[in-house]
Design brief:
It is an enzyme of class 1 (oxidoreductase). Belongs to the dus family. GO terms for molecular function: flavin adenine dinucleotide binding; tRNA binding; tRNA dihydrouridine synthase activity. Keywords: Flavoprotein, FMN, NADP, Nucleotide-binding, Oxidoreductase, RNA-binding, tRNA processing, tRNA-binding. The chain is an alpha/beta fold and about 350 residues long. The protein has two domains: about 250 residues, Aldolase class I (TIM Barrel); about 80 residues, Non-ribosomal Peptide Synthetase Peptidyl Carrier Protein, Chain A, CATH 1.10.1200. The strands form two sheets. The chain has an eight-stranded parallel β-barrel, surrounded by seven helices. A two-stranded antiparallel sheet has the order 1-2. Strand 8, helix 7 and strand 9 form a beta-alpha-beta unit. It binds flavin mononucleotide.
Amino acid sequence: MTRNTKYTGSYTIGTGEKSVVVENRIVLAPMAGITNKAFLTTAKEFGAGLVISEMISDKGIEFRNKKTLDMLDFVGVPHPLSIQIFGGNSETLVEAAKFVEKNTTADIIDINMGCPVPKVTKNDAGSRLLLDPDKVYDVVSKVSKAISIPLSVKIRLGWDNDHLFAVENAKAIEAGGGALVAMHTRTKAAAYTGHAKDNWDWLGKLTDAVKIPVIGNGDIKGPEDAKQMIDQTGVTAVMMGRAALGNPWVLNRTRHFFESGELLPEPTINEKIQIAKIHLERLVELHGEHLATLEFRSQASYYLKGAKGAAKVKVAVNQAESPQEVFSIFEDFLNPSLTVFDSF
Ligand SMILES: Cc1cc2nc3c(=O)[nH]c(=O)nc-3n(C[C@H](O)[C@H](O)[C@H](O)COP(=O)(O)O)c2cc1C
């Protein structure tokens, strides 16, 4: 069995006319409430080869819920991009996938089979599907037949340590016509506890078991982790989530490391604030000023993480009621001689 050892170059998802060529091995993970149009645009600018939307409800699509339909707007995000849907029933997933193919700019549709949240699993969706490889096959084969663009699936290792069906599920995805499988190497029961890295060898089992590309995910903190994952498991590409929050540089630094072996420096706080401001501007375009200001609060704390004096700035941003207020808080922070922050 020969495993992938490539860090650079493109790879192809799917076959035929609608197959998708991805230019590099860096993937931005789907994150609910975060990977909307604003952040996907930024992640692309920072070198992600493939970006994946936050999970979007098949029921919301079925009922043409306005909020859900707004979440499907990715017009202007550079291709290729993938839109992730979730649901526990093959019929509604089929209808949702057909709707996404017809009405959005998605190049790939991804099905979420990893979400551990009870609100999702109690409806047989997300990681609940991992308990039954036959159901995984059923869902994937029905959805893949209903659309002409590639279908991918994001899974976890299993439901819990007594139900580790990762290999069976990956085979079911491939047999059902899935074009790619991505795996977060934790179980549903583990949620976000423990160390995903301890389970990376499972990704090697997947790359040995299926011919479709396998994307590895879980606790990649930077370029060196990413390289280690490829070396250890032969995955086609690496997927990063939390490491990119407030730090999309990690995507570009990883790409650069893969291409040259050189580690670029971490961004300065000035650079981070500059990108944070662009992030806020993009959220304003997406949601309007009020909602953008609220949504940006959690993002601001990621951008400010580790910066000297950040605690007070976070408090100020959390109380800000308009983007203009946030911009002037940042301005004051970066120009301490003028500001209220100079004494902190
Ligand atoms: C805030 C947050 C939201 C997430 N939302 C989703 C989601 O919508 N769909 C999904 O498949 N995974 C979701 N995940 C899981 C991530 O895609 C990823 O699998 C996980 O964070 C592990 O990767 P990391 O260690 O690189 O962060 C989410 C994770 C976080 C932290």
